[in-house]
Amino acid sequence: MTEATTPDAQGSAQTPSAPRRAAKTLAEKVWRDHVVKQGEGAGDAAQPDLLYIDLHLVHEVTSPQAFEGLRLAGRPLRRPDLTIATEDHNTPTLAIDKPIADLTSRTQIQTLRNNCKEFGVRLHSLGDAEQGIVHVVGPQLGLTQPGMTVVCGDSHTSTHGAVGALAFGIGTSEVEHVMATQTLPLKPFKTMAVNVEGTLRPGVSSKDIILAIIAKIGTGGGQGYVLEYRGSAIRALSMDARMTICNMSIEAGARAGMIAPDETTFEFLKGRPHAPAGADWDAAVEYWKSLATEGDAEFDAEVFLDANRLEPFVTWGTNPGQGVSLNDAVPSPESFGDENAKAAAERALAYMDLEAGTPMKDIRVDTVFLGSCTNSRIEDLRAAADIIRGREKDPNVRMMVVPGSARVRLEAEAEGLDQVFLDFGAEWRFAGCSMCLGMNPDQLEPGERCASTSNRNFEGRQGKGGRTHLVSPVVAAATAVRGTLSSPSDLEPAASASTSASNVA
Amino acid sequence: MEKFSTHTGIGVPLRQSNVDTDQIIPAVYLKRITRTGFEDALFASWRKNPEFILNQEPFNAGSVLVAGADFGTGSSREHAVWALKDYGFKAVLSSRFADIFRGNSGKQGLVAAEVAQDDIELIWKVLEHAPGTEVTVDLVAKMVTAGSVVAPFQIDDYTRWRLLEGLDDIGLTLRDEPAITAFEATRPSFKPTTLPAKS
Questions:
Q1: Shortest CA distance to A247 belongs to which of A35, A472, A11, A488?
Q2: Is the peptide bond preceding residue A331 cis, with omega within 30 degrees of 0?
Q3: Bridge partners of B94?
Q4: Chain B contact set for A172 (CB, 8 A)
Q5: Nearest by CB to A171, which of B100, B117, B192?
Q6: What is the DSSP string of A464-478?
Q7: Which of A72, A202, A215, A243 has the largest count of CB atoms under 10 Å?
Q8: A173, A184, A372: which to substitute to probe chain B, counting the most B Cβ within 10 Å?
Q9: ipTM entry
């Protein structure tokens, strides 16, 4: 791995604002095409631009106080036709036909239903075929398209950047602002090229790319930037895989992550319910093609990752930047030069109950979680199913599979994936955010250790006292077989490998 | 939003980097539908430990949090800012803030003051040596003072202006309503709408 320039380590400018220049990168072009009113001045003294928002995604957790704000001010919701809501964070993944047991969860979901009715917002409730994690539902319906601005009161909104949209998470005050005005006052983000060249080896996936990038630039390395993922390794990825990468841009501190739209993008969108059709499709594709970053474009920063040398990646600590290759060992706090990083590593190892020097593959887990807006799409489920098919689960491991949306669940069942998971001894659940953040009953017990395909290994994230190792779907599946953190290449040949889709080709 | 010009209150040294919003307020407290009353939720997990800084006098009465780098990372939950404010914090000092957290702070009148790490270390020493030392955050001069330490801080000019004036963002934007309407008229027909629903 080589590195030309990296973002300034101290992040000296408090609000990033690039000097005005002709829009040549993907992010700058999308920004340019949404400026309602350009802010006066330049640099740090500049006023923000007023940016138009094409799509506002809403869920039950970050919206109630925003709706309440509209009501108190007597303001209407300006564009219900550019707004869509779904229930995901609080929803149970079992017995979804019964009233939600937790009273506060039930109240919050009922509040969303009441608010959507009052303000005329389209809502996909629990039990609806289009319900699911907001970041799985948007692309699935074809509502997130290249060149759009997309926001949601959720930091993983960056997911939608995979189709070439400028998509970012916002706080509840901004949710209210978008509801009232369909705009946001924002200063332009800086741009960072993340170049990933080469070919991924078998068993290495897009999750490993993004975990390696975060380990490289750190949890603050992307602060103030829109990351544009580029290079041959990115171009070769499917849309589902690209979404995994863009999803975790926020874990590097970035506002958004984007990938230039190409034939893979167009193929993914064509025919989706809200994708353009007929003459509109042709006009849209022509516009989308014009958005790609130009050859002479300059980025404010640039990083490189060699895909050829990448191995399955896993986190050992309590932030997503604390990761290593699965073949490595738990690092020693002494190996961190900076005193604060050393203290953070010591604290993380104590919380994770790990000793420096322990091979990562010797770490035994209690639970495997396959789900979340990072890795719960149909390809993630297929990849995991291909690993476990014909194999036996470690009897001491509990595996929970939570599809990202009701539609993904239906699709998986049509392919028989549910039976593969059930035969293996995994739990096959209904769609939602589930154990990624444990707002519903899906939580780790104190001290439990989990290999999770989700996005955050923060203290207590998956349940108070729970310990999280972030992994890809195939590493999660291999770990469920062996009971210790494992890559697919560690597995014995499957008993009935002939049925495995991965061996058909 | 209340106007903010200067604030003086007990400084709380939080010697930790990467304080993510899951630590500031765990997800279980996000089920509430109100905008206030989150003081019990602030650092809820850590406060169960009697050694935690906010469980010690006089720090429990603090109003200026002095934290390590990368404060407020992770989830976009504005509840993190509400919890800090409801507890009584008026300002947070750190050498680097996560973007969304800093934005949320600016909307809610919590000053997120970016102070160089060397100065943060000096302020930590002052606060640990003389617990109860008051820290002054002067938004007009963009300076913080803690005992003998006087240090500049950064905050973007637009946010500073809004905080000084106590201005409401939505009201400001609605002054440009005609420009928004004009922009909407140019929106290409191929762009999607959520209504009517298609499947």
A1: A472
A2: no
A3: B114
A4: 78-79, 104
A5: B100
A6: TT-EEEE--HHHHHH
A7: A243
A8: A173
A9: 0.94
